[in-house]
Write a structure and sequence with these properties.
With about 750 residues, the protein is an alpha+beta fold. The chain folds into five domains: about 1-75, Alpha-Beta Plaits, CATH 3.30.70; about 90-220 and about 330-400 and about 680-735, no CATH class; about 230-260 and about 265-315, Calcium-transporting ATPase, cytoplasmic transduction domain A; about 410-440 and about 560-675, HAD superfamily/HAD-like (Rossmann fold); about 445-555, 3-Layer(aba) Sandwich (Calcium-transporting ATPase, cytoplasmic domain N). The chain has 28 helices and 27 strands. The protein has a seven-stranded mixed beta sheet, with helices on both faces. Strands 7-6-8-14-9-12 form a six-stranded antiparallel beta sheet, with no helix packed on it. Strands 17-22-21-20-19-18 form a six-stranded antiparallel beta sheet. Helix 24 links the parallel strand 25 (about 625) and strand 26 (about 640-645). The protein is elongated and about 125 Å long. About 45% of the residues are buried.
C-alpha cells in the first residue's frame, strides 16, 4: 500500500522476527530515527510497520537495512505477492514452532518427573541434564540468538528475559552437578534446576504457539473478505466466444458473464440480463438486491438465480472490495491513542525488570541467611521469567483487530482505531437530511404553473439540466419529454439555486430566499400551493423571470424505513440528535416531526454545517457527523467522529472515519455499541496485564517468604507468563461472539 503527499510516501511493510511488544518498540524507534522518515508506527498484533518517509531522501531498501541492523527484517516485496509470501512465512514459522513445542514438552516431561519424584535414583542429575540440554540449547536457541542480537545494539526484549532466566538456571545447575563438592564443603546441598530451565522454555513455546493461533483468528475478517473474490471469470470475447480468464488479466471494459450462484469478480455495470444479487458481505444487509441493465454490481457479491453480462468498470485495487480490504487492514494496523502510552511502557519494561531481578538477588544476598545465594539466584530467575510485556503489547491491538473485523462483517467500515475508541464518547450526532434520513432519491410529485401557462417549461428544463443539484435531476426526469433550449450566462448560486438568460430576460430556479434577494413577486395562487406542499414535508422549488414567479414545483424525498427506529434508539442511548438541511423550514419541520428529532436547522449552507459542529464542540460535546454528500465533507472533517453513508459521494467516504455501506441509520447505534464493547475489552486486557505484572513480580522476588515461607517455583512462573498473553488474546476473541444489536 502506498499513498503520496507531495514527496512523502506512506507504506506498510510486514516486520519479520518480532517476538514481543518490546521488539515492536525497538523497530519503531530505529525506523523513526532514520534520515528522511517523517513518521513510523509498528503494531505488534498485526506485525506491520507503517512508515511515512521522504522518497527523495530514503527508500524501502534503506529502511530494511536499518531494521536488519537490530536483528529483524522487513518484507518489501510487491504488494500482490506480499500477502502470499507472508502467509507462506507464517505457515512455515507456525509449523516450526509447533514441532519445537511438541519436542520441548516431550523432552521436559521426564525431567519434571525425575525432579519431583525420583531425585534419589542413580544418575538422576545426569539424565535430567541429557534431556534438558536439547530443550534449552536447541529448541530454545532462538531466545539466546535474539537476545544476543539485541545486546549487540544495547537493547533488551522478551527474549533477553527468557535467555537470562533459563541460561542462569541451566549454567547454575551444570555447575552444581559437576562441582557439587563446592557446596558440600560449605555445608549446603547442591540443588539442580534443570526442570525449571526446560519447563520454562516448553511453557513459553506453548504460550507463543497459542498466541500465534489466536492472533491468526483475530484477523479472520480480512481472510473472509479476501476469500470473496473468485480466482477466474468468464470473459466474452469480441467474437462472442466465452473464455475462462484469471482475475489478474481482467481489464477495464471487458464484458463478463456471471452464472447463477457465482461470485462477481470486479466492479461493473450490467449491460444485459437481470438477477438478484446478495450484497450482504459488503453492506451487512441480508435482502438480495435486484440488478437490471445500467445498474452497478460489486466485486465479492454473489449472484443468485439469474445470469447476466456486465462491463468491468473497476478492476484490481480499484474495486470496492479491494478498497474495503485496504481500509480494514489499515484500521486493524492503526494505533488507538491508549496504545501509544502502552508502547512506551513496554519499551522500558524489560530493562526495569532486569533491574528488579538484580535488586532481588542483592537483597537476598544481604538478608537471605544460609541459602542466600541459591534462593537469591532462583528468585532473580523467577522475576525474569514471570515478567511479560507481551500481555501489555497485545492488550489494545488484538481488541482493535477483532472490533474492526466485526464492524466490517456488519457493514460498518472503520478507518482507524482512534475513531473506534472515540465513538463510545459520542453524545451529539448531527444528521444530514437528504440521503441520510431520507432515501436521497427525490422525485417531482406536483407542479403548478401561474395561470396554467407552461410555455416556459423548456427554459426551466434547460436551467435544471445545467445545475448539479440533486433536486434538479428530479425536475429533469419529470420534464423528460420537453425539448431543451439554448441559454446564456448560466450561473449556479450555492445554497440557493441557479439563474440563466434567454431572449434578454433572466430566469431563476431555486428557493424562496433567491426570489426575495432579487425582489421577485410571488403571486397568491403559487404561494398557497407552496404552503400546502410544505405542510406535507415536500420541498418547494420556485421558477421565475426577473419580475414574478412563474411556477412552483413540489419534490418529495421518502424517509428511509429504518430512520425513525434508529433515531429513537440513539435518543434512548442519551445522545442529542440534530438535523441540518439546506431544505426549507416547513420541510425540515415535517421530517423532524415524522422521525422524532427534537433539534433541527433548515436552509443551512455547507460551510455553516462545519460551524455548527464547532459550536457543539465548544460546549464540550463529542460530536459525530453523519452525511453522504460533497456538501457534508467539511463538517465530516471537523467532527470528532465522521460517518459517511456508503451510497453517497466518494469524497464523503474519503473524509469520513467510518462508512455505513448500506446507508442504514440503525448501523450507527451498532457502531457506538461496538466501540463501547471494544474499549471495555481493551480496559479489561490492560487491567489484567498490569495486575498480572504488579502481583507476579513481587511474589516472584520472594516478598511472601518472610511472611509464610512461600517461594514461587520458576516453572510455575513460566506457565503463568505464557498464560498471561494467551488470556489477553482470548479475551479479545470473546468480543467476536458478543452481540452488538
Amino acid at each position: 500500500m502506498a499513498t503520496t503527499n507531495q514527496n512523502t510516501v506512506t507504506q506498510t511493510f510486514p516486520v519479520l522476527g518480532m517476538t514481543c511488544a518490546s521488539c515492536a518498540s525497538s523497530v519503531e524507534s530505529i525506523v523513526t530515527h532514520q534520515e528522511g522518515v517523517v513518521n513510523a508506527s509498528v503494531n505488534y498484533a498485526t506485525g506491520n510497520l507503517t512508515v511515512e518517509f521522504l522518497s527523495n531522501v530514503t527508500n524501502a531498501e534503506n529502511l530494511r537495512k536499518a531494521v536488519q541492523g537490530v536483528g529483524y527484517d522487513l518484507l518489501i516485496e510487491d504488494e500482490s505477492k506480499q500477502q502470499e509470501s507472508l502467509e507462506a512465512i507464517h505457515e512455515k514459522k507456525f509449523k516450526e514452532l509447533k514441532n519445537k513445542t511438541i519436542w520441548a514438552v516431550i523432552l521436559s516431561l521426564p525431567v519434571v518427573i525425575i525432579g519431583m519424584f525420583f531425585m534419589e535414583m542413580p544418575y538422576a542429575n545426569e539424565i535430567m541434564w541429557a534431556f534438558s540440554t536439547p530443550v534449552v540449547l536447541w529448541l530454545g536457541r532462538d531466545f539466546f540468538v535474539n537476545a544476543w542480537k539485541q545486546a549487540k545494539h544495547r537493547k533488551a526484549n522478551m527474549d533477553t528475559l527468557v535467555a537470562l532466566s533459563t541460561g542462569i538456571a541451566y549454567v547454575f545447575s551444570v555447575f552444581n552437578m559437576l562441582f557439587a563438592d563446592f557446596w558440600h564443603q560449605r555445608g549446603l546441598h547442591a540443588h539442580v534446576y534443570f526442570e525449571a530451565a526446560a519447563v520454562i522454555i516448553a511453557f513459553i513455546l506453548l504460550g507463543k504457539l497459542l498466541e500465534e493461533k489466536a492472533k491468526g483468528n483475530t484477523s479472520s475478517a480480512i481472510k473472509k473478505l479476501m476469500g470473496l473474490q473468485p480466482k477466474t471469470v468468464i470473459v466474452i470475447q469480441a467474437d462472442g466466444k466465452e473464455k475462462q480468464t484469471p482475475i489478474e488479466e481482467v481489464i477495464e471494459g471487458n464484458v463478463i458473464l456471471v452464472k447463477p450462484g457465482e461470485k462477481i469478480a470486479v466492479d461493473g455495470m450490467v449491460i444485459s440480463g437481470s438477477s438478484y444479487v446478495d450484497e450482504s458481505m459488503l453492506s451487512g444487509e441480508p435482502v438480495p438486491v435486484l440488478k437490471n441493465k445500467n445498474e452497478k454490481v460489486f466485486a465479492g457479491t454473489i449472484n443468485q438465480k439469474g445470469s447476466f453480462q456486465f462491463k468491468a468498470v473497476k478492476v484490481g485495487k480499484e474495486t470496492m472490495l479491494a478498497q474495503i480490504i485496504k481500509m480494514v487492514q489499515d484500521a486493524q494496523g492503526s494505533k488507538a491513542p491508549v496504545q501509544k502510552l502502552v508502547d512506551k511502557i513496554a519499551g522500558i519494561f524489560v530493562p526495569v525488570v532486569m533491574g528488579i531481578a538484580l535488586l532481588t538477588f542483592i537483597v537476598w544476598m544481604i538478608f537471605g541467611g544460609e541459602n542466600a545465594i541459591v534462593q537469591g539466584l532462583l528468585a532473580a530467575v523467577t522475576v525474569l521469567v514471570i515478567a511479560c510485556p507481551c500481555a501489555l503489547g497485545l492488550a489494545t491491538p488484538t481488541a482493535i483487530m477483532v472490533g474492526v473485523g466485526k464492524g466490517a462483517e456488519q457493514g460498518i467500515l472503520i478507518k482507524d482505531a482512534e475513531s473506534l475508541e472515540l465513538a463510545k464518547k459520542v453524545d451529539a450526532i448531527i444528521l444530514d437530511k437528504t440521503g441520510t434520513i431520507t432515501e436521497g432519491r427525490p422525485q417531482v410529485t406536483d407542479i403548478h404553473w401561474l395561470n396554467n401557462d407552461d410555455s416556459t417549461k423548456d427554459i426551466l428544463l434547460s436551467i435544471e439540466k445545467q445545475s448539479e443539484h440533486p433536486l434538479a435531476e428530479a425536475v429533469v426526469k419529470y420534464l423528460g419529454e420537453v425539448t431543451p433550449t439554448t441559454l446564456s450566462n448560466f450561473d449556479s448560486i450555492t445554497g440557493k439555486g441557479a439563474k440563466a438568460d434567454y431572449n434578454n430576460e433572466t430566469y431563476f430556479v431555486g428557493n424562496k430566499k433567491l426570489l426575495f434577494e432579487n425582489s421577485i413577486a410571488i403571486p397568491e395562487e403559487l404561494q398557497q400551493r407552496a404552503e400546502e406542499w410544505s405542510k406535507l414535508s415536500k420541498t418547494v422549488i420556485w421558477f421565475s423571470d426577473s419580475k414574478q414567479a412563474l411556477s412552483v414545483v413540489a419534490i418529495s424525498d421518502k424517509i428511509k424505513e429504518t430512520s425513525a427506529q434508529a433515531i429513537k434508539e440513539m435518543q434512548e442511548m442519551g445522545i442529542d440528535l440534530y438535523m441540518l438541511t439546506g431544505d426549507n423550514e416547513a420541510t425540515a419541520k415535517a421530517i423532524a416531526e415524522q422521525t422524532g428529532i427534537q433539534h433541527y436547522k433548515a436552509e443551512v449552507l455547507p460551510k455553516h454545517k462545519a460551524d455548527f459542529v464547532k459550536e457543539l464542540q465548544k460546549q464540550g460535546k463529542t460530536v459525530a457527523m453523519v452525511g453522504d454528500g460533497i456538501n457534508d465533507s467539511t463538517a465530516l472533517a471537523t467532527a470528532d467522529v465522521s460517518i459517511a453513508m456508503g451510497k453517497g459521494s466518494d469524497i464523503a467516504m474519503d473524509v469520513a472515519k467510518m462508512t455505513i455501506i448500506s446507508s442504514d441509520l440503525t448501523k450507527i447505534p451498532q457502531a457506538i455499541k461496538l466501540s463501547k464493547q471494544t474499549v471495555a475489552t481493551i480496559k479489561q486486557n490492560l487491567f489484567w496485564a498490569f495486575i498480572y505484572n504488579l502481583i507476579g513480580i513481587p511474589i516472584a522476588a520472594g516478598i511472601l517468604y518472610p511472611i509464610n515461607g512461600f517461594l514461587l517455583n520458576p516453572m510455575i512462573a513460566g506457565a503463568a507468563m505464557a498464560m498471561s498473553s494467551v488470556s489477553v488474546v482470548s479475551n479479545s476473541l470473546r468480543l467476536k461472539w458478543k452481540k452488538v444489536i
